[in-house]
């Protein structure tokens, strides 16, 4: 599960059931460069198995990132999870108050100032 802002992705995951006679010692979260390139470690929780979420910060706005992770135990790294994606943007701000430009029996023309904040992604329509 992910939540986004204009420059971060918040990721939450579920604890995994460890193999018999083994304890999960932590989780590692990986993120790509936002351009389909190599993955890097975004969170290294090797020694903290109780942490099941992380906010990856300082990302580029309007970018689609791939994220995956794996569990760790004393024997080593587990298999990679399924990839998820995170697009860095948030909801836009509120536009200005509509004002009447003209009206007739069949039409009303209004105008308003655009939203001050586009949420990190260009506004396509109102």
Short description, anyone?
With 126 residues, this protein is mainly beta. Helix content is 0%, strand content 40%.
Key features of this structure:
five-stranded antiparallel beta sheet; 10 strands; Immunoglobulin-like; mainly beta; 126 residues
Structure characterization notes:
- This protein is mainly beta and 126 residues long.
- The protein has two domains: 86 residues, Immunoglobulin-like (Sandwich), CATH 2.60.40.10; 35 residues, no CATH class.
- The chain contains no helices and ten strands.
- Strands 3, 4, 6, 7 and 8 form a five-stranded antiparallel sheet that branches. It has a three-stranded antiparallel sheet with strand order 1-2-5, with no helix packed on it.
- It starts with a strand and ends in a 15-residue tail after the last strand.
CATH class of the largest domain: Mainly Beta
Within CATH, the superfamily of the largest domain carries the name Immunoglobulins
Mean pLDDT: 88
Low-pLDDT ranges: none
Shape: elongated
Share in β-strands: 35-45%
Question: How many helices in DSSP terms?
Answer: 0
The largest pleated sheet is described as: 5 strands, antiparallel
Q: How would you spell out the order of helices and strands?
A: EEEEEEEEEE
């Amino acid at each position: 599960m992910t939540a986004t802002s204009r420059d971060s992705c918040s990721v939450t995951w579920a604890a995994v059931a460890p193999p018999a006679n083994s304890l999960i010692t932590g989780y590692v979260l990986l993120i790509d460069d936002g351009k389909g390139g190599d993955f890097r470690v975004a969170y290294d929780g090797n020694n903290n198995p109780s942490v099941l979420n992380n906010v990856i910060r300082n990302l580029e706005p309007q970018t689609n990132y791939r994220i995956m992770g794996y569990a760790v135990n004393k024997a080593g790294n587990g298999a990679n999870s399924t990839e998820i994606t995170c697009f860095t943007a948030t909801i836009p701000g509120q536009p200005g108050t509509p004002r009447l430009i003209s009206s007739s029996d069949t039409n009303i023309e209004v105008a308003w100032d655009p939203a001050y904040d586009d949420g990190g992604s260009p506004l396509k329509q109102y």
